[in-house]
């Protein structure tokens, strides 16, 4: 039986032919001649023996009859692949199907080897990743970071020229990391550029890509899409991205993002990505300042839609929200109630195949991406592909992403604000009270968080094709913060041990004008920092929790991962922990940048009654450590409350300000985030 | 062979690789003094020099520099910045570097200086200044200057080809098994874009490399001896005027109307352009311009320019033309007369700061127009974008806006020309000489006279010299591409000379007969679209003379191989005179575009021939040296180190108003002229 780990080698050097050497331990696949492409079949001896000299490991590939790949091959190898384009989704879904349905790992390996040189490389990566995540016999595989297979989607194209020089001129041992310039996409004249470190962060973009890997919105196998509360998670994850982004804007003296609610108005924010796609040998097209959306008519994408179509879908969704129900395909009303409403709306808005009526409610969110991404060439006159916002691994780089999602979130909030407010009784946990909250880093003033810049290296050699082998490192500069610890004092007045769900949020105290915010506004900026279960003994309890344990983040190493170093022994419990879900907010971005003089925030802690929240299921080894934004693989979302609870609805009457909102099981503390403009080095 | 000359030749190869890597397909390295290494490699000079000298055949010693030059002046232009001949600050840097190179006391010191400088300044700046110097130093006359499309192929070729080239070279060892890569045609836009019909012209490798080499021969700034060439201002006018005529005729061939001069800088520019080519300097794609872009004032660290400045300069230049004189910086009036007027205007408009009579007053119209257009996407550098293709002479002609801008520039020149007196009989006629028969005929035996043929051809270009950090031992990384071609043909003229033996200048033009609405063109319009095909002197014996001339001998074009010349030694002619032919030949219209495309059903043109009196044409050259063997395209490029070899104003007789209304009346009035109708048929198939 094939070693499943060999499958991972297929992610390396995505545009090189499959028979080329791979891996740190030099490995080649013994590709049957009949699997070679026409270009190489006649000279198979020559090409296969050429790479054969330094091989340490050979992987036999069984020759099986190959399923029909005509549909997957109908997307050109050099085209740009986007999940937002329905035609591409259908093609990818077919390939996922093929991969998922192969009977054994051996057969999967054969088909994957065969398909690799024939289908679009990015789609191959996507489909194989989805298949490996969803096949029972390949779970627990440590998928390589997408950024290492396709570094061109994360890194200034200029860096590639230097990497090429370095790998050509200098031997592997003495190579120096290529420093990726900090501000390369725009200058200070562009106020939006102040957010470059957030929008262009490697971890943030990887998170978005992986989130969409874990939650595909289309597949012919419905179970791949139909995950517990996926529509709601779509809403919540993006709502949190907006809350975080707006907090970053406050950290840069900018106002909250303006929702892009008038599709006819020019988009003031231009964006020039300065990246080149290795697959298509084209630059990601820029969007100039003040570009307007236009009706799309792009034959080869099979898209012929008007801006008016988007407007109609939007109006119908608003109508459904205001009526309190949606209409399914048979004309039946489906209530948008407290429990399920947001999930249905999520599937409608995104939309996924779970949408009760895609004809009526359309595909608003996805097509917003598509319209913005094609605004520079609406009818393919100039043979230009989509801009960065058309691809889930690059979309978050573009300021327009946030304007669009601010609007999407506004639609969700339209529903949320119509739900009844949580009552005192719902919120309170009688007998449990918080007596004190503090955060502190080692050796610093309490309730002051510190952020600064850090440089981390990442090996890009796996995605660097047709160049001499050996590591080539790129050095990224990114935001980070001093790790800190929460100390929470909780009193249990009851006589028995009880369980609580600790929910920690943070939001700025004041708005962009420096005015204190009403809770109805502040709740939209509440950033979830952590959520975990505690047992409470009778009497006083002191809970300590480290920031690195956060339920929204994945550790630093998983963003800048080196697959070979620090890998726990195979089969050990640690390996299961290490198992990659990839999905998760990067821990180095847990805290907003803050201001040099300190950004004043409310840190909010609530202990809710775990009896009301709990979902009974086994969680061990299910890469549950970023569950808040990503859920848990093959499991229910581990919290019965609505996502974002207790801030997902309008506050009850009388709770105008956060301080009036508090019940005894909640507490707030003033925290200040201070930014130190210094760069620390760290080797990954 | 003199190793210094060899070294100079090799410094053109692999412009981005450090100077210590191998060149000449991995056969040669330089033996460099320690001081040449840049700081990046200074600490392990031994390692890198050993690494790259393992399998070499030749080591070329490079001397220690007598005195390290101070290169700080060039530091303003970063290594990864795009270099533009249209931007003043870049021109100043280039001018200093050229001076530095020219000042090197001898060949060895020049080699050492070039090796030292190469990795310390911007690579395109280096290649430009280096080539200009090689062309102008007396001791480097025999060093061939490679075609720019082979030094920086990425500026000319669709970028996926380079990815494919790396793949071929790294996967397949034997050069023999490699398949030639195909450079896609028509990749910048689809046929929804009308302008795309001209892509074969705008994006032709030969057209764009001609433009670069023209600017190499005629730098707009630099030391006086390099800039101040005979009638350079006039040639600037004429070469670009001919480009426009050819472009507009090409548009007729594609059922498009003439290009609209960009005379209103406040108007939206409907023509968008997405170049898709990738600069190898910074690995960034040349920025695009979306449809309906408005120009905006440019305010960037390397210069600022307002649209209203251009408008003021334009108005002052037009006022000077209407008044008939310019004023120099001392306030002295200089008449814009029949002889020198156009040259003065050319230098004013191109704004050679060295040669303009009043740079301050008449400004920098042509260059700053390029600049403003090339920065339309990011005028204040807020997005840190470099200029678009319009900012770079190797790429400017790809963009439809180039022709609209030059359409405007040309209209300014034409305004001056239209104010000059109509040519009179004495100027036009040649008593006793009459042209009695004219034909142009393909070489094939049974070819019909006056039907010419165009078609697509596939040719190959070698990318190896510009594939930096790629495989070294490969002499052949070739890519094939499609371009327009014309079947060679022969002109035959019968000329009767009623007098004694004398010399004439034979001037051949073709003109479209009808405009975009299929209305016959008046001579006044036709003359502006007359395409110069050839110009040569003929000896006329008393009585009947038959003159034959091959289309491949044209004085405007350079042979096909020069546009796509391979630099490898295998391709170099050995004999000394043959080698000389290779020199300096990049300048010249590509032979394969000598004829406009025509139409599949055939398109009618007037073939016009005039024999003028050589006594009025001849130029007394200052030196007797034989003509540079490469100066075959003198109509567009002049003669190297000599005066322009035709005393008439360029474009004669079509550069001024003519006494007749139609071409027929015109040739009817003068016996030394004749015309015939010819048909150009386009055969839509690919050959080769």
UniProtKB/TrEMBL annotation, chain A:
It is found in: Secreted. GO terms for biological process: dopamine metabolic process; melanin biosynthetic process; melanotic encapsulation of foreign target. Its cofactor is Cu(2+). GO terms for cellular component: extracellular region. Its main location: secreted. It catalyses: L-tyrosine + O2 = L-dopaquinone + H2O; 2 L-dopa + O2 = 2 L-dopaquinone + 2 H2O. GO terms for molecular function: catechol oxidase activity; metal ion binding; tyrosinase activity. Residues 398-409 form the Tyrosinase copper-binding domain. Its EC number is 1.14.18.1. Keywords: Copper, Disulfide bond, Melanin biosynthesis, Metal-binding, Monooxygenase, Oxidoreductase, Secreted, Zymogen. InterPro entries: Di-copper_centre_dom_sf, Hemocyanin/hexamerin, Hemocyanin/hexamerin_mid_dom, Hemocyanin_C, Hemocyanin_C_sf, Hemocyanin_N, Hemocyanin_N_sf, Ig_E-set. Signal peptide: none annotated. The keyword Lipoprotein does not apply. Belongs to the tyrosinase family. This is tyrosinase. It comes from Drosophila hydei.
TrEMBL record, chain B:
GO terms for cellular component: extracellular region. Its main location: secreted. This is Phenoloxidase 2. Keywords: Copper, Disulfide bond, Metal-binding, Monooxygenase, Oxidoreductase, Secreted. The gene is LOC111597672. It comes from Drosophila hydei (Fruit fly). Pfam families: Hemocyanin_C, Hemocyanin_M, Hemocyanin_N. InterPro entries: Di-copper_centre_dom_sf (IPR008922), Hemocyanin/hexamerin (IPR013788), Hemocyanin/hexamerin_mid_dom (IPR000896), Hemocyanin_C (IPR005203), Hemocyanin_C_sf (IPR037020), Hemocyanin_N (IPR005204), Hemocyanin_N_sf (IPR036697), Ig_E-set (IPR014756). Belongs to the tyrosinase family. The lineage of its organism: Eukaryota, Metazoa, Ecdysozoa, Arthropoda, Hexapoda.
């Amino acid at each position: 039986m094939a070693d499943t780990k060999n499958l991972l080698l297929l992610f390396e050097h995505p545009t090189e032919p499959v028979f080329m050497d791979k891996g740190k331990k030099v490995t080649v696949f013994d590709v049957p001649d009949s699997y070679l492409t026409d270009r190489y079949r006649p000279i198979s001896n020559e090409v296969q023996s050429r790479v054969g000299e330094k091989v340490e490991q050979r992987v036999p590939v069984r020759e099986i009859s190959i399923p029909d790949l005509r549909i997957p091959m109908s997307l050109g190898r050099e085209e740009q692949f986007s999940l937002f384009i329905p035609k591409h989704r259908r093609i990818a879904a077919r390939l996922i199907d093929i991969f998922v349905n192969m009977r054994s790992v051996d057969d999967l390996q054969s088909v994957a080897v065969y398909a690799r040189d024939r289908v679009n490389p990015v789609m191959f990566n996507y489909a194989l990743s989805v298949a490996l995540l969803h096949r029972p016999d390949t779970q627990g595989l440590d998928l390589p970071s997408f950024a290492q297979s396709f570094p061109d989607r994360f890194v200034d194209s200029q860096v590639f020229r230097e990497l090429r020089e370095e790998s050509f001129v200098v031997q592997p041992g003495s190579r120096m990391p290529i420093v990726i310039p900090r501000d390369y996409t725009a200058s200070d004249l562009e106020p939006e550029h102040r957010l470059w470190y957030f929008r262009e962060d490697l971890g943030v973009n990887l998170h978005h890509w992986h989130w969409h890997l874990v939650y595909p919105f289309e597949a012919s196998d419905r179970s791949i899409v139909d995950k517990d509360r996926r529509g709601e998670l779509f809403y919540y994850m993006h709502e949190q991205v907006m809350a975080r982004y707006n907090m970053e804007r406050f950290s840069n003296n900018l106002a909250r993002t303006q929702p892009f609610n008038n599709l006819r108005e020019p988009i003031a924010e231009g964006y020039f990505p300065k990246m080149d796609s290795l697959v298509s040998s084209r630059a990601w097209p820029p969007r100039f300042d003040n570009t307007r959306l236009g009706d799309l008519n792009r034959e080869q994408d099979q898209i012929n839609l008007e801006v008016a179509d988007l407007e109609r879908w939007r109006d119908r969704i608003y109508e459904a929200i205001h009526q309190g129900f949606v209409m399914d395909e048979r004309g039946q009303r489906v209530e948008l109630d407290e429990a399920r409403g947001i999930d249905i709306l999520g599937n409608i808005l995104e939309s996924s195949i779970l949408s009760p009526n895609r004809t009526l409610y359309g595909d608003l969110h996805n097509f917003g991406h598509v319209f913005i991404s094609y605004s520079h060439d609406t009818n393919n006159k100039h043979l230009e592909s989509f801009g960065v916002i058309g691809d889930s691994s690059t979309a978050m780089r573009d300021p327009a992403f946030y304007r669009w999602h601010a609007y999407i979130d506004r639609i969700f909030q339209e529903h949320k604000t119509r739900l009844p407010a949580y009552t005192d009784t719902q919120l309170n946990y009688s007998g449990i009270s918080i007596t004190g909250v503090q955060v502190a880093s080692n050796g610093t003033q309490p309730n002051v968080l510190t952020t600064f810049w850090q440089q981390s290296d990442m090996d890009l050699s796996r995605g660097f094709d047709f160049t001499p082998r050996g590591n080539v490192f790129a050095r990224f500069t990114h935001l980070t913060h001093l790790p800190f610890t929460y100390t929470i004092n909780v009193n249990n007045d009851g006589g028995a041990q009880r369980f609580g769900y600790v929910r920690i949020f943070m939001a700025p105290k004041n708005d962009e004008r420096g005015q204190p915010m009403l809770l109805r506004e502040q709740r939209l900026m509440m950033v979830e920092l952590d959520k975990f279960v505690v047992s409470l003994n009778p009497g006083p309890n002191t809970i300590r929790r480290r920031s690195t344990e956060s339920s929204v983040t994945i550790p630093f190493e998983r963003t800048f991962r080196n697959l070979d170093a620090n890998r726990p022994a195979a089969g050990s419990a640690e390996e299961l922990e290490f198992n990659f879900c990839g999905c998760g907010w990067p821990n180095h971005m847990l805290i907003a940048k803050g201001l040099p003089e300190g950004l004043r925030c409310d840190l909010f802690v609530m202990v809710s009654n775990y009896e009301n929240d709990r979902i009974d299921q086994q969680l061990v080894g299910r890469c549950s450590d970023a569950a808040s934004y990503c859920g848990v693989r093959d499991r229910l979302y581990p919290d019965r409350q609505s996502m974002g609870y207790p801030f997902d609805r309008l506050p009850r009457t009388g709770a105008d300000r956060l301080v009036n909102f508090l019940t005894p099981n909640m507490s707030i503390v003033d925290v200040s985030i201070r930014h130190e403009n210094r760069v620390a080095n760290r080797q990954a | 062979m003199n190793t210094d000359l060899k070294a100079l030749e090799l410094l053109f190869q692999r412009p981005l690789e450090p100077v210590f890597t191998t060149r000449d397909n991995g056969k040669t390295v330089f033996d460099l003094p320690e001081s040449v290494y840049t700081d990046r490699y200074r600490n392990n000079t031994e390692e890198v020099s050993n690494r790259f000298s393992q399998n070499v055949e030749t080591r070329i010693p490079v001397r220690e520099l007598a005195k390290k030059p101070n290169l700080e002046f060039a530091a303003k232009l970063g290594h990864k910045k795009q270099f533009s001949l249209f931007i003043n600050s870049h021109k100043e840097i280039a001018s200093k570097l050229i001076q530095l190179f020219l000042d090197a006391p001898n060949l060895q010191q020049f080699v050492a200086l070039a090796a030292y400088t190469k990795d310390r300044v911007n690579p395109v700046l280096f290649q430009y200044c280096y080539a200009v110097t090689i062309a102008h130093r007396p001791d480097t006359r025999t060093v061939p200057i490679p075609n720019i499309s082979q030094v920086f192929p990425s500026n000319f070729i669709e970028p996926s080809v380079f990815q494919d080239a790396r793949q071929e070279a790294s996967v397949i060892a034997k050069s023999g098994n490699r398949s030639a890569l195909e450079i896609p045609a028509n990749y910048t836009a689809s046929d929804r874009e009308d302008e795309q019909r001209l892509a074969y012209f705008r994006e032709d490798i030969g057209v764009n490399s001609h433009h670069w080499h023209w600017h190499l021969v005629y730098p707009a700034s630099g030391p006086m001896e390099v800039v101040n060439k005979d009638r350079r201002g006039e040639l600037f006018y004429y070469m670009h005027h001919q480009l426009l005529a050819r472009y507009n005729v090409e548009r007729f061939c594609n059922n498009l109307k003439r290009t609209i001069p960009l005379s209103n800088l406040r108007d939206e520019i409907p023509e968008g352009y997405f170049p898709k080519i990738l600069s190898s300097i910074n690995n960034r794609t040349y920025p695009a311009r979306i449809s309906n872009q408005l120009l905006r004032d440019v305010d960037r660290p390397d210069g600022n320019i307002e649209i209203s400045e251009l408008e003021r300069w334009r108005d002052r230049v037009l006022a000077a033309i209407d008044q008939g004189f310019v004023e120099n910086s001392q306030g002295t009036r200089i008449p814009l007369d029949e002889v020198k007027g156009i040259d003065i205007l050319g230098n004013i408009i191109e704004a050679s700061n060295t040669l303009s009579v009043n740079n301050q007053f008449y400004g920098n119209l042509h260059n700053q127009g390029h600049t403003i257009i090339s920065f339309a996407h990011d005028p204040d550098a807020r997005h840190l974008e470099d200029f678009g293709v319009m900012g770079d002479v190797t790429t400017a002609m790809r963009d439809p806006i180039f022709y609209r801008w030059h359409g405007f520039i040309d209209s300014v020149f034409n305004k001056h020309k239209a104010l000059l007196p109509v040519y009179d009989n004495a100027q036009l006629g040649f008593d006793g000489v009459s042209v009695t028969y004219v034909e142009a005929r393909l070489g094939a035996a049974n070819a019909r006279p006056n039907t010419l043929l165009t078609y697509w051809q596939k040719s190959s270009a070698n990318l190896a010299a510009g594939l930096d950090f790629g495989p070294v031992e490969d002499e052949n990384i070739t890519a094939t591409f499609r371009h327009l071609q014309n079947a060679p043909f022969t002109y035959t003229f019968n000329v009767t000379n009623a007098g004694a033996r004398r010399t004439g200048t034979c001037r051949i033009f073709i003109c479209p007969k009808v405009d975009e609405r299929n209305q016959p063109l008046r001579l006044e319009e036709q003359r502006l679209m007359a395409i110069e095909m050839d110009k040569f002197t003929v000896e006329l014996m008393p009585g009947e003379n038959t003159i034959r001339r091959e289309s491949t001998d044209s004085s405007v074009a350079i042979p096909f191989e020069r546009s796509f010349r391979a630099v490898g030694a295998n391709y170099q002619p050995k004999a000394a005179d043959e080698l000389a032919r290779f020199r300096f030949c990049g300048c010249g219209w590509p032979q394969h575009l000598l004829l406009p495309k025509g139409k599949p059903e055939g398109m009618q043109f007037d073939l016009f021939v005039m024999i003028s009196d050589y006594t009025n044409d001849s130029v007394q050259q200052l030196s007797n040296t034989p003509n540079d063997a490469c100066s075959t395209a003198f109509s567009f490029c002049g003669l190297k180190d000599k005066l322009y070899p035709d005393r008439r104003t360029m474009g004669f007789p079509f550069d001024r108003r003519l006494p007749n209304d139609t071409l027929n009346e015109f040739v009817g009035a003068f016996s030394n002229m004749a015309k015939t109708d010819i048909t150009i048929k386009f055969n839509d198939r690919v050959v080769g």
